[in-house]
Amino acid sequence: MSKRLFVMLPMIFMASFILNAQDIEVKKFEPLEKDQTAVTSPRKDINGTVCGLVKVALKEPGAEFEGNVMGDVQFTGSEYLVYMPNGSKRLGIKHPDYLPTTIVFADYGTKKVASSTTYELKVKVNKKKAKVDDSKKGMAVFNIKPSNAMLLIDGQIADGAGGAYTMSLPYGTHYYTVKLKDFSINNQMVKIDKNAKTINVDLTEFFTKVSISCKTRDADIIVNGEQKGVGRWEGYILPGKCTIEARKEGFHLLSKTIELMDGEETSVDFQGMKAITGTLRVENKLDNCEVYLNGKKVGTTPWVIDLPIGEYELEIKHENYKPLKRTLKISENQDVLINENLNPTSFGRLQIRAEQGNTLAIRLLVDLYRYGVEEIVKGETVTSWLDDCIEDNSWSIKIEDLQNDNVNIERSLSKEIYWTKKILLDRNDFCVRSWLNNESYHLMECFLTGNGIKQDFSQSFFWAKIAAEDNWWQSNAWVAWHYYHGRGVDKNVNSALQWLNKDDSKYNTCNVSILKNAIINNQGEWMNKAILDLLNED
């Protein structure tokens, strides 16, 4: 007997709940203009904005509230203090003694909760009795979406699967509830009679439309740990706290946590992400070395830059030096220093020796700029034909060296003149003395005619005089010409004659006589002709 009573007790209790089910009726929802509780006792949302306060006038303890509720709900004995973020649009109420309900604020004249504002929600508990006739039953079919939502008939969980429920219910009025987390609650009643009833319920999901973008190209958009898109994403997210991130390898994470409001549209726009970097320093004892990264010129030494982490192909170049190539890996906050000497090419070694004043090196540069590499003696060291001019034979340059280094020396009269002048400054060197008068005369011609260099009569006179002093026989006539015409030197006919008289034996007597007579008689045209005749003599 006791066992039977134990089984019957839950059934009696359930029947009592069904027959005495109550629902909550909203009587009023409005702002309390004179109530400053939301300001004097504020509560802020996760973004630091002061919430609104909803005072729910319900005396029964044990109520729970669903929606955008911030923090714990305080029960004073006569009302509940519910803080909600700015923009909240609805509030759900659950109580073990009542059917759950959801209040949409807009249905009562207030579109949404405002910050720092206090509201009053007055409700009335209505006791409902199910009126049924157990002697007769009718069929009811429920089609529920989403299919995993729960169906309660008169407070009792219904049996079913996949959102389809078919049941036989006593004639009369029955109350049903369909609910699912993150969806609005549906409370309705249905009258069962001899006609079968089909009830379709499609719950409305609480959601917020969110648009997310990041200016950094190809950044992954992550919402609550789930990748949603690349660069930009737009979709719907359930209300509540939401963490939005922009991620990209090699860049610092961008993250923002926000409170999403039901029915609100929210935009999150991330600015450019900051790259995770290390520092690269390139130094060299040579000034202005060209620095290349991944094949692109980026600067000259000394060069410092913060680079995104990763691998790079570094190349350092300098004229007449072999390029230095390195593969680098830049790590976060790492300081990488590259300070390695470049090795000169064969031509670079020649340039260095020449800059140091080595006579032979300068002499070789002159010939290279005058004739080009291929015109120099092939297959032999370039220096072999000048061995008698050097005391230090510890170095040499071969044609093959220049060719292997891909040295392409174009003929250049201006560079030839530059190095010729440099070598002729040292007149005590045996190699220079054996070569001086011919090259001095060559320089005179260049400055006189402006060939390869700016025309300069003072320089042409200077080099003509040096050539004449070293007994280059054609030079005397040109010194005389400069004196006679006053080009590059003060006009002086006597000096012109003196230079012609220095060594008459080198000239054709007839041409010299004509030249002297032209000078004495001040006949410039005849003098020029006589000089040209002298120059044409073998």
How would the blueprint of this fold be written?
Blueprint lengths: L1 H18 L2 E10 L5 H4 L11 E6 L6 E4 L6 E2 L4 E5 L5 E5 L6 E4 L13 E10 L4 E14 L4 E4 L2 E2 L6 E16 L6 E7 L4 E6 L5 E7 L5 E4 L2 E5 L1 E6 L2 E8 L6 E7 L4 E6 L6 E6 L7 E4 L2 E5 L2 E6 L1 E9 L2 E10 L4 E4 L7 H10 L3 H13 L27 H6 L8 H12 L5 H4 L2 H14 L7 H13 L5 H11 L7 H8 L8 H12 L3 H12 L3
Parallel strand pairs: 2-8, 9-14, 15-21, 22-28
Antiparallel strand pairs: 1-8, 2-5, 3-6, 4-5, 6-7, 9-12, 10-11, 10-12, 12-13, 15-18, 16-17, 16-19, 19-20, 22-25, 23-24, 23-26, 26-27
Helix pairs in contact: 3-4, 4-6, 6-8, 8-9, 9-10, 10-11, 10-13, 11-12, 12-13
Structure, explained:
By secondary structure, the protein is of the alpha+beta class. The protein folds into 5 domains: 22-127, no CATH class; 132-202, Immunoglobulins (Immunoglobulin-like), CATH 2.60.40.10; 208-270, Carboxypeptidase-like, regulatory domain (Immunoglobulin-like, Sandwich), CATH 2.60.40.1120; 277-338, Immunoglobulins (Immunoglobulin-like), CATH 2.60.40.10; 435-535, Serine Threonine Protein Phosphatase 5, Tetratricopeptide repeat (Alpha Horseshoe), CATH 1.25.40. Helices cover 25% and strands 34% of the residues. It has 13 helices and 28 strands. Strands 9, 10, 11, 12, 13 and 14 form a 6-stranded mixed β-sheet that branches. It has a 5-stranded mixed β-sheet with strand order 1-8-2-5-4. A 4-stranded antiparallel β-sheet has the order 17-16-19-20, with no helix packed on it. Helix 3 (346-355) packs across helix 4 (359-371) and helix 8 packs antiparallel against helix 9.
